[in-house]
Design goal:
With about 375 residues, the chain is of the alpha/beta class. It is about 40% helix and about 15% strand.
């Protein structure tokens, strides 16, 4: 606070803060990576008091939009990471001093009040919170009459409840809303609940049809043996031009693709689930999912590009793509001749040299 009163002091304080920790270079942890997938899948909204950009850097090639200014909030048209106290990649937005935190930007107060009023809110790993947030929690508690939609997550929140700030702020918080868990444990459980919902819908859609019930069971068995993050990344990596915040794995076409994939899983070979594909008996199966129907030609282009990636990664076995959301018949075989009168020896075909096998999810389900 004292340094910030000097000429250019506030800017120097922010710059000094950036030099004392790896806010823009630290390796994202499991919770960062999982939150990024949940935001991209449109499952959660995340409000952060942290300056670091670990969540934004965890999208596996997808852009996690971060809100740090009033203009960002006005431009927002997708689920995002709302950085209430600014972002280290944009130093002028960082709230540092006591005055900063007592007078946050208008969008920050609006978002906090709105989320507390109409959402299930979990405070994760927060031992102390800014004064304006305390006031808003109290206002909501007084206006609504209860805080049953508020959860506090921290390893010691149950054992040390009486000594915590939360016991004074929300003394009526139900015992079941006090979650003794680390951020990683809580986010893992949150992601697992989303995945469980997908599996339940798979089971429901297969009910009454034994071959599909067996396929759904094979998928469930495979998925439950893997970390949730791996499964979520597979789902997002399978998207065909899917916008951030649009469900892919949990969309209707996503579930259709996953169930169709289950019809291909062998009972007599070990199946390996990776972040981009499934592998068994020397073959790879990849999903191509578009929540909105797209021309079949787009699926062929995506399959060729991903085939090249697989070959570059060393895979020389069969490649099969299970497609959901394709309009029209899926093309098969080599591409139309684009060489003309040129000497074939002078051409590097690249993606067009690949002839991937494309299978429609609807056809696989109909044949089961």
């Amino acid at each position: 606070d004292a340094a910030a009163t000097l000429p250019t002091g506030a800017d120097l304080v922010r710059r000094t803060c950036l030099d004392i920790a790896d806010f823009t270079t630290a390796s994202p942890n499991y919770a960062h990576k999982t939150l990024a997938m949940l935001i991209l899948e449109g499952f959660v909204s995340v409000l952060s008091w942290n300056w670091d950009d670990c969540v934004e850097r965890s999208g596996q090639g997808e852009h996690v939009f971060a809100v740090a200014t009033d203009q960002d909030r006005r431009d927002l048209n997708e689920p995002a990471l709302l950085k209430l106290h600014g972002c280290a990649s944009r130093p002028p937005t960082m709230l540092v001093t006591t005055d900063d935190l007592q007078q946050p930007r208008p969008w920050v107060q609006t978002e906090m009040a709105g989320r507390l009023a109409d959402s299930v809110v979990a405070f994760v790993g927060i031992g102390n919170i800014a004064g304006y947030t305390r006031d808003q929690v109290l206002d909501v508690m007084n206006a609504v009459g209860d805080v049953s939609h508020v959860y506090v997550v921290s390893p010691g929140v149950v054992e040390h409840w009486d000594e915590s700030m939360w016991s004074e702020l929300v003394p009526a918080l139900p015992d079941e809303n006090r979650v003794a868990a680390s951020a990683e444990e809580f986010v893992e459980g949150l992601a697992a609940s989303m995945l469980a919902g997908v599996l339940l819908k798979l089971d429901a859609s297969a009910t009454g049809h034994p071959p599909l019930m067996a396929a759904a069971q094979r998928v469930s068995t495979l998925v439950m043996r893997k970390p949730v993050l791996t499964v979520l990344r597979l789902g997002r990596a399978s998207g065909v031009r899917v916008k951030a915040g649009t469900p892919c794995l949990s969309s209707n076409n996503g579930r259709r693709a996953v169930l169709a994939m289950g019809t291909l899983l062998p009972a007599d070979h070990e199946v390996y689930l990776c972040e981009t594909h499934l592998e068994f008996d020397g073959s790879q199966v990849r999903l191509l999912i578009s929540p909105e129907d797209r021309p079949a030609g787009e699926f062929l282009r995506e399959a060729r590009l991903r085939s090249v990636d697989a070959r570059n990664a060393g895979h020389d076995g069969n490649l099969t793509f299970v497609c959901a959301g394709a309009l029209g018949p899926l093309p098969q075989g080599p591409a139309t001749d684009v060489i003309g009168t040129l000497d074939p020896d002078d051409i590097i075909a690249g993606a067009h040299a690949e002839h991937p096998v494309l299978l429609a999810a609807s056809a696989l389900l109909g044949a089961a």
